[in-house]
Design brief:
It contains five helices and seven strands. With 163 residues, the protein is α+β, with helices and mostly antiparallel strands. The chain has one domain: Gcn5-related N-acetyltransferase (GNAT) (Aminopeptidase, 3-Layer(aba) Sandwich), CATH 3.40.630.30.
Length: 163
């Protein structure tokens, strides 16, 4: 990433939905899967993505464009998509939830995640948000370490039982 121009911005273009979905599918490791991915059908089990993952993420991206409580932002390095974040805003209770934060496999470890978190925090503060939540797959240790370095603290343990 050295020498490149990083641009982070809200995605307001419904035509980007397929590019966002492709980026997600290409960069989503099975350790990324948390209860949210299972609850909403992106994954069929821990460690196993749904067969229609691309279609689901593309649909979510298209819907978020018109929803004031949901938003996707993208990071580009010299024009190339290298990161995305999906956020849910609750203006009534002044919190936001990072539903997804993904950095391309080739850009991980170069500081883009921190830049994204800092940008998200700035956007949240401008909106009057006081708390920022996220969830992370149980096996995603590298992400957990990153989030803890960035000041996130564990507030719950989510458990599941197959029926």
């Amino acid at each position: 990433m050295a020498g490149g121009e990083i641009e982070i911005a809200w995605c307001r273009d419904p035509g980007m939905a397929d590019a966002i979905a492709l980026f997600f599918v290409e960069n989503a490791d099975p350790t990324y899967i948390s209860h949210g991915e299972i609850m909403f059908g992106r994954a069929v089990a821990l460690g196993q993505w749904a067969d229609d993952l691309f279609e689901q993420v593309a649909r979510e991206a298209r819907e978020a464009i018109d929803d004031p409580a949901e938003a996707f932002a993208v990071a580009r390095l010299d024009g190339e998509l290298v990161g995305l974040v999906e956020i849910h805003f609750d203006d009534r209770y002044h919190f936001a939830v990072i539903n997804d934060l993904m950095i391309s496999r080739t850009a991980r470890g170069a500081g883009l995640g921190k830049r994204f978190i800092d940008w998200v925090e700035e956007q949240c503060r401008e909106r009057g948000i006081r708390r920022l939540f996220l969830e992370s797959g149980i096996g995603n240790a590298r992400a957990h370490e990153f989030f803890e370095r960035e000041g996130f603290v564990k507030t719950a343990v989510t458990m599941m039982r197959e029926l």
